[in-house]
Automatic annotation (TrEMBL):
Zn(2+) binds at C405, C408, C423, C428. This is DNA ligase. The keyword Cell division does not apply. Belongs to the NAD-dependent DNA ligase family. LigA subfamily. CDD domains: BRCT_DNA_ligase_like, LIGANc. GO terms for molecular function: DNA ligase (NAD+) activity. DNA ligase that catalyzes the formation of phosphodiester linkages between 5'-phosphoryl and 3'-hydroxyl groups in double-stranded DNA using NAD as a coenzyme and as the energy source for the reaction. It is essential for DNA replication and repair of damaged DNA. NAD(+) binds at D31, G32, E33, Y34, D35, S80, L81, E112, R135, E171, K287, K311. PROSITE patterns: BRCT, DNA_LIGASE_N1, DNA_LIGASE_N2. Residues 586-663 form the BRCT domain. The active site is at K114 (n6-amp-lysine intermediate). Its cofactor is Mg(2+); Mn(2+).
Amino acid sequence: MSDRKRLEELHLLLTEHSHLYYVLDEPQISDGEYDRLFQEMLKIEEAHPDWVTSDSPSQRIGGAVLDKFEQVQHRLPMLSLENAFADRDLYAFEDRLLRFLLTDVRPGYMTEPKLDGLAVELVYEYGLFVQGSTRGDGSTGEDISAQLRTVTSIPLRLRQTDIPRLEVRGEVFMDRTGLAKLNQQRAEDGEPLFANPRNAAAGSLRQLDPKITAKRPLRFYVYAVADPADTDCKTQQELLQFLGSLGFPVSDLICFCPDIKTVIKRFAELSTLRHDLAYEIDGMVVKVNDFALQERLGAKARAPRWAIACKFPAIQATTKIVKVDFQVGRTGAVTPVAILDPVDVGGVMVSRATLHNADEILRKDLRIGDTVLIQRAGDVIPEIVKPVLEKRDKDAEPIIIPQNCPVCSHLLVKPKGEAVTRCVNPHCPAQRLRSIIHFCSKAGLDIEGLGKKSVEQLFDLQLIKDLPDIFKLQKADLEVLDGWGEKSADNALSGIEAAKKPVLSQFLAALGIRYVGEVTAGLLESTFLSLERLLTVTREELLEVDGLGEQAASSIADYFSDPSVREMMNAFHDAGVQPQVLVQREENLLLTGEVLLFTGSLKKLSRTEAKKLVKDHGGQIASGITKKLTCLVVGEKPGSKLKKAQEKGIRILTEDEFVAMLS
């Protein structure tokens, strides 16, 4: 079988198995077998980049970083819904329908769970996903196509390809487990937590770097099309069945109800079920089932007459703020945490709630001793909604934001433009502990046998004071500790030994440098190729790396120029830690030593393909006209960069000349 035929076969296989796993929850092969097929596909695509199609499963791993989101005009507006909060509101809804239709015949209804996520529109042309956008203001949204491609339950190719254009609408959301894991990681990284699934989904989809979105555990359920006339379906029930047959995930909680009494009964059932669901719902949507009736009913200014949202009451309770603690994260972020009189909120005893930052405290006007309304945001993180001012005691005390770190007493700073107050002392014990925990965690070097509790124990006993101390631990130190023994000591030491030769990018991500995650660490490895080179890197050199912004460049340069960091790197070396580089640059390639920049619209290549060609031939990509730039490749309408390059005497190539040079 030819490579081309095998690639087509792999596309079909992986698409089908992805649908079985992510949509139907009925996997038919192991994760290992799926990974093997995926790697085989990547290998063929790397050898033949011109064979990569927009619906390839490889396109889910994230594309180029965007400068900003473009605006998208919805062909038909994405309207909001009116709300119902009680049975009488639903009866009134039906009465309005019957009066408008001039009939006594009650229509049937489709009821669907109201997901707590972000509404999106997906556009398909002849079965291929071509664009995705947010709801925005209903008329205009933001183009998040690259981000939506990474959501595994959104099909990139439909099972029916004869529909010229189909505009599908649905909800992107995050389930409870995914949100809890994401927030746990953000807490370890000293980042603010997502308050609820909606914020998590919106925050993930609005990342300019799609690779970040790809790492977020997002899911999707379809619930409508912009215009039912684009299908042969006559009812909402028929439409959802049809969309499921095309490959879209449809909630298994949808239910047809012949009348409003049955709708009310179904709402009561969902109210009971909601706490046992894997994901958060905040109500139920009721729609007239018949599309002909929907068309007759039409819409008002902002909402259709034929649908209504039944909202669940929020899971809230009142209690008192006893005091406020200030916790120091790995990056020095100081987060205020309210200590509360324990209270039952939706079946869970809550005694702590995050206050996020000083600005949030001021905005909500919170004080120690206040009676406050709290809720479990997304049923995961307790948050304070507001103080109950009618019950405020005269002796309620203002919450004083400390000027010094609560752990090391170092002066705190609040960087311009940021809401978070930080301890900038690199030797702060709280930061050091969280840094060590991160270094050993799955997000770091994933050292087996050194979990969070073990690291805290070793830190308290001063067996580990800094990161290099991990690699100096001895069996005699460990096996005598409480909860340890010979076997657990051997396991930890084996894990430590295995971590002595990490991939450089993994090592860099484990260090916990601010603004350096997995993607940025990979850029640093592929550009500078060694830890020794990074120790001498300048901010200007970092700014020339395609994909690195000013904040990240400044943070990285400051980090490696710190004398204490250099001492730590020497200690790593002395302990036998030798980061390995996977990407090796060949010295005799056509563009070795060349730094290229593209401007204007390219016709034969996408910008991503052009940059990949440069890197494959040993060159580097610049982010602007700099003194290191050796060549500017111009497409149509090149703009001001062309004039600047001409003034500096930089070599200029057309797109055709660039392609011809490489071929």
